[in-house]
Amino acid sequence: MCRIGAIKSTDYVHPSKALLLMRSQQKGHDNSGFAMVMQDLGGRFADYKDLPILSMACTDKGMATAEDILHKEGFVRVMQWSPEINFRDELNIEPMPNYVFQVFQYPRSFKYAPQEEKEELLVDMRLKLRNVLEENDDGYVYSFWPDVITLKEIGDPQDIGTYFGLWKEDRDFTAKVITAQCRQNTNYDIVRYAAHPFFLQGYTALANGENTFYEKNKNFQNGLYKGYIGFESDSQCFLYTLHYIHKILKWPLEYYKHAITPLPFEEMAKREDGEALKFIRSSLSNLEINGPNTIIGVLPDGTLFNTCDAKKLRPTVIGRHNGTVVMTSEVSGINEVLPGRNWEEDIYTSERETVVITNNLEVQRWQQ
Amino acid sequence: MATMRVNEISRDDLDWQINYSTERCTMCGSCVAACPFEAIEAGMEKRRKVVSDYLTPEPKVEFKAVPVIKQKVDVYKFCRGCGVCERVCPNTAIKPVRNEDSRFTIKYRSILADPYKRGGRANLSTGVRTLDKIRVGRISQMTDPSLDASRHTFDMLAPFGRILPADQIPFVLENGKLKIDSGVLPPMNWIYPVIIGDMSIGALSWRMWEAMAIATAYLNEECGLPVRMCSGEGGVPIRLLKSKFLKYTILQIASGHFGWNRIINTMPYMQELPGGVLIKIGQGAKPGDGGLLQAKKVASHIQEIRGVPKTDLLSPPNHQGLYSIEESVQKMFLTFNSAFKFKVPVAIKVAASSTSVSVYNNLLRDPYNIVGGFFLDGILGGTGAANEVSLDHTGHPIVSKLRDCYLAATHQGKQSQIPLWGAGGLGQTGNLAADAFKMIALGANGVFTGKLMLQLAGCVGNDHGKCNACNTGLCPVGITTQNPTLVKRLDIDRVAENIVNYFLSVDSELKKLLAPIGNSSLPVGRSDCLISEDKAVADRLKIQYAC
C-alpha cells in the first residue's frame, strides 16, 4: 500500500519535513523511490512567482537539447539552480547526471498574451520536451509551471534525501505546499514518471491505493485533453479527472467528488440538484472510480483537499497545529511532524466527504 | 411381397419417431387429444397370436384387431418431438424418439418445392459459444479488495437514451451549484441492465405476452428492479397503452409499422409516457430476411390490434421508405422524438453484421444528439417463423460485433454517448447473469433477452430440432399460438412468477460477479477483468489471454 503525504503551512517549509513525514510510515512502502511537488515557493525562488520553472532530470545531451528547444521557442533563462549532490557509493539510488530547476522568461511574443494562452504554451512545451527527450532516454520533464518544483527519483527515499541534501533544513529551498510519496507504482515497471505526485497546469494529485477503473478512465481521458498522457500509473487518472472537472469544465471543486464517486441513484433523487447530478453521472461514467483509494489534491490557488473512494477502503488522516496542516496515509506521520497537536482534533475523512484546506488554513468538510 | 414405394416419405425419414407400447397403453386418448400437430392418431392393427387352451400344447392361431396409437407419416402432420404426448400419458406408454438418420428436410423440400420453415432456433451447432470461452478474472486479491456481495450496495442501473458529453450539458452556476439551464435535452432513463427483448403480441400468445407484462410490472413495483419490456412490433393492447404500466414498456416500430395507428390514436389518452421507442431495422437470426407472421397465427384480436386482414404478415428486412442511415435519423428519430415531445428516448435495433460499426459510428457522429440507444442482435437472437436456411446460416455472432462497436466509440472518445445493448443467445446455457456480465465488461451498457423468457414459460423446444414449431401457430404449450385451446395450457401467473424469480436470481448473481472485481456499479467496458484461455478469442476481443 502506498504512503502519501501533504504539508500545507502559513510559513515556508523545507522538504525535510516531508521526508520525516514519509519516513515514519516506512513500513508501508518498498523503498523504490521518492517524489515530491513543492508549490508556492520560498527561498531562492520567491522572487520569480510568475515565471515558469522547468523541473527536469537529464543527461548532458538532454539538457542541451531542452535548452535549444526552449530558446528556439523564445524562452529566456532567468535563473538556474541545481541541488548540491552528495554522492556516496553505498547510496541506493539510480540518479540521472543532472537535476535542473530553471526559471524562464516567457517568449517576447507572449508578453501581452492572455493567461490561458500562456498556460497552453507551457503544456505544449513540456509535452514537446518530454517527447524529444524520451526518444533516447535523455531526460525527464516533470513540470514546467510557475512557482512549482517537482523532484522524482528512483531508489531508497532515505538515500535520495541524502543524495540531494534534503535532510538538512535550508531557508533557501522552501514552499508553503509540499506533497510527497515514497514509493514507485507497483502495478507497472519502475519508471521515473510513475511516482506520485502527478502535476498538470497547477493541479497536483496523489493517491494511496489502486484504481480499479484505470482502463475505463484512461480510455476516456486519452481523448479529452492533450496533456492527458503517460498513464504510467493507474493513479494518474485522478489528476486528469480533477483537471478536467475544475479547469476544463470549470465546475466547482465539489463536483469532483460527484464525478468520481457518484451518489447512489436513490440519494441523488432526494437532492435539489439531483437532475444535474444525474447528468453528470451519465456523461462522466467513464471517470468514475471504484476504489480502493484516497486522493490528496492541490488546486492552482494552493487549496489542498482530500477525498476517498465511496467505500473508504484506504486510510487517511488530517492533523493541524500552529499554522500547519498535514494530510497523510498513517497517523504516525503526523505524530512525527506535529508532535504537539491535539490529536483528538484529527480528521479521518469519510467516504462521502471532501476535506478542504483553504489558504488561510481554514478546514472545510463538505458532505457529498 | 408387398409393393414398396421407395420415393414415398416413410417413418424412417422423419426427425422424430413415436415409440409406443401397446401393452402399457390404456387407450385413454390423452396423447391424441394433446398433440397439436395431429402427428398421432388412434387406429386399428391386426395382431396374430398363437395360444393354447390346454395343459398340453395345442397351439392355434388367433387374429385380433387391436386399437393402437399410430404415428402419421405426412409432410404437414409430422411429429416435432415436443414430448407433450409423453407428458400427458398416465402410463408412460408413448414418447417421441429422435431419429438420427432423418432425411426429413430433404424430403420436405423435394415434395413441396418450398423452403423448409420452422420457428425459433438455429439448429446448426456451431460449437461452444464465445461467451463460454471467457471467464471473469480479477485484478488482485491483495491490493484491490473485493466487495461483499451480500453487504455492499450496488448500483445496478444502465442508461437508456442519448448521453451528452459533459461539456455539452447546459449547466449554469447558481450559488456555487450546477443547475440545468432550461431547454430541450435528450431524454435519458436509468433502467435495469437486463430487459425483456422484443417479441410481438402476434408472435406470442396473448397470455404469454400478458404474463411478461405482469412480470415486468411486478419487478418494477414490488421488487424495485426497473426492468423494461419491449413490446415487439405488432402493437399493444389499448388497455395497456392507457394504463400507468405503459412506462415500463418500450414500444417498438419495425418495418411493417404494425400497430402504430392504434398507438398514435391512443396518445391523447396516455396517462404515462412509454419507457422508450425502439426502431427495429433488423434482427440477429436471419438478418436481411425480415419477420414473418403466418396467417394461421393472425387471430382476430391480432387483426384488430394491427388493423390487418387475416393474411401472412411480412415485416420487410428494412424500412422500405428509407435510403440511408442519415435518412433514418432524419425521418424516424425526429418523428418519434417529436411525437412524444422529446421526452422519450428513441433507440435503434440492428442485426449484428459487418456494417454494425459503420451504422454505430454514423449515429455517434450525428450532430443532433438524438439517437438514444444502439441495440445489436446476434445470430442466436430472434424467434418467429423463418426459412430454415436463414435461421441456420445467416447472421453474425454478437460478442465480437458488440466489442467492435464499443472499441470504435472508445477510439473516438465517445464511449457510452449512445448506450450499447446486446443480445442474441444470451442465457442460452441457462445463466443469463454470467452472459450479461461478460457482455457489459466487453462494452455493453445492458443486454436484452427474449427466448429465455419463453423457456421460463415452459417452452419445450431446444436448439437440436426439438419442437421448433413457433411458426405453425400450434405451440403445444401455449406460448406462441393464438389457438384458444392451446393458449389455455399456459398458466399466466405461474409464468409471471417464473420470470420474476429468474430476474431476482440474475440480480443476485450479477452482484456476485461485481463483488470480486471490486465494482459497485456496472463494469461497462471493464474488459481488464475478463480472461480467455482461447488465444484467438483473447486477441479478437482484446482481453487477457491466460492458459
TrEMBL record, chain A:
Write down the InterPro entries for this protein, in alphabetical order. GATase_2_dom, Ntn_hydrolases_N
Q: Which domain of life is it from?
A: Bacteria
Query: What organism does this protein naturally occur in?
Result: Geovibrio thiophilus
Residue span(s) of domain Glutamine amidotransferase type-2:
2-360
Q: Which residues form a coiled coil?
A: none
Name of the molecule in the record: Glutamate synthase
Q: Where does the sequence pass through the membrane? A: none
From TrEMBL, chain B:
* Binding residues annotated for [4Fe-4S] cluster 2, in chain numbering: 79, 82, 85
Single GO term (MF): glutamate synthase (NADPH) activity
UniProt keyword list: 4Fe-4S, Amino-acid biosynthesis, Glutamate biosynthesis, Iron, Iron-sulfur, Metal-binding
User: By its UniProt entry, which Pfam families does this protein fall under?
Assistant: Fer4_16, Glu_synthase
E.C. no: 1.4.1.13
Q: Which GO terms describe its biological process?
A: glutamate biosynthetic process
Q: Which domain of life is it from?
A: Bacteria
Catalysis: reaction(s): 2 L-glutamate + NADP(+) = L-glutamine + 2-oxoglutarate + NADPH + H(+)
The UniProt record lists the 4Fe-4S ferredoxin-type domain at 16-45, 69-99
Annotated residues for binding of [4Fe-4S] cluster 1: 89
In the record, the note on similarity to other proteins reads:
Belongs to the glutamate synthase family.
Q: What is this protein called?
A: glutamate synthase (NADPH)
Q: Which organism is it from?
A: Geovibrio thiophilus
